[in-house]
Every structure is written in C-alpha cells, then in structure tokens.
Amino acid sequence: MLDFFPPRLMFALRHINLNFLYELRVRADKPLRANIGGNFVFLSENGVCSAGEALIPTSDEVRGILLAASEYSVYAVENQIRQGFVTGSGGERIGIAGSFVYEGEKVLSVNQITSLCIRIPHAVKDCASDIYRRCFADGLCSVLILSPPGEGKTTVLRDLCRLICERTMENVLVSDERGELSAGDLGQTADIIRYADKLTAFTAGIRAMRPDVIVTDELLPEDYRAVKRAVESGIYVLASAHLKRYEDVPEKLFSRYVLLNGLGKVEKILAQGGEDVA
Predict the structure, then answer these.
(1) Is the pTM above the cut of 0.85?
(2) Whether 133 and 181 share a structural domain
C-alpha cells in the first residue's frame, strides 16, 4: 500500500495508524493533509501537527507520485489520466488536478499536475451486515447506495459483495471502472472486469460470464442504460451514486435505496416507490 509515495513524505506516516488513514491530500507547495478516522489533519515527519509545521510537497514530488503509481509508464495509464485519476497497485485511487487539454470535446491529456487526492481503500468486515439483513430479508434484489463523497459507499459495496458470495454462492460480476472497488476480498464467487466503462463491462459480462448479480460503483446518469439492461435481463444490480436524496436518482430501477450517514451507518432505506422500509 502507498508504495508509490516518496520517502520524504512517508516519514509523515510512521506515527499514523494506517487502518484509519482514508485519504491523503498532496498539493505542490502546500501543507500535506490527511483524513484520519474522518477528520482532516496536517502532517509533519513527526505525525499530526499544525499547518505551519507540516511537510510541504514539491512539484517534483507530486509528479513523481503520479509517475511511480503508473509504474513509470504514463502511456499505459493514459486512458485513466484522461478521466482524471490513476489507480495504484494497492487499489489506491489517485485523483488528479491540473490543466486538462482538450481537442474539441475530448480530453487528450492532463498536464501541469498540481494536486493529488489519494484515497486509500479499506476492507471493513461486516460493515454491510445491517444493509444485507434489511434489504435481502426476502431474497436478493437490486440496491442503490446513496451518499455524498467520502461516506463509505465503496467500502460498503465491497463488504456487501463478500456477504452475497459467502451466504448465497451466487455468481457476482464486479464492474470496477477505476480499479478501486476490487481492492480486497470480494468473495470466492466474484469475477472482476476492470477499467472498462459500465456499458462495456455489463454487456460483455452478461454475454460471457452469466452473472446472477452485478456490482458497480459511482453511477453517472449515462450509466443507467447499462443498469436497465441488466435488470431487464433478470440480473440484480448493486451500485452506488454520489447523491444525497432519493428524489435525485435519475431512473428508479432499483428495489431498495440505502441512504448512508457515514461508513455502514444507515440513515434510511427506501423501497422503489420511495416509501420507508423497516
């Protein structure tokens, strides 16, 4: 984990419990910050500190992180970079801020990288147990998990996938567009398609892998076409979306809508028509 992080900055993590490290914010010429247990703090080589004592990443270190995370072949991950991220070998998703270069409406590249948001994946066993119990009391169904960014949707989906594999032995296809969802144990009956857009992954997976369940992360409005195809084919879909309200879901294709208020903390569960589920 974080094997692409430069040695000077790694000193800041020696005094941190990595089990609670959720995110690193690396900005050129600005203090190093981390989300530890849900709270943002500044980091020095001695651990948590004030902003004035924090390590200051250089532009070279920011570029070096991106190069090391791409295993020194930016060409090999250029499609990811055009989408604004790179995935580390440990499943870390490295978001990129810089200058996006366009040709017409198509992103050609991102250069002059100035900031990185490094999200560290965690397996939190049984964090989805309550959701599993409440949503699948009468058997499997399609579920959409809703919350703003950083509320644990991906971690919950991983555990939900593992629970389905262990308890039902159904064939689960994981559509992992960013290489982040499949970091960790997903269960013995899970098959994974990485780095394909959802429509491609769903189409290829349905044709070739005969899944009973498809699991995917971070639905965008254009992804509901793929979900609809799967649901109409009799396949259950578990997914997440960066939304706070049931009312904002573009198409009501799921049987259950889980609104999170933190990792594994269920605010409410709604049925397809919007009514509360006990």
Answers:
(1) no
(2) yes
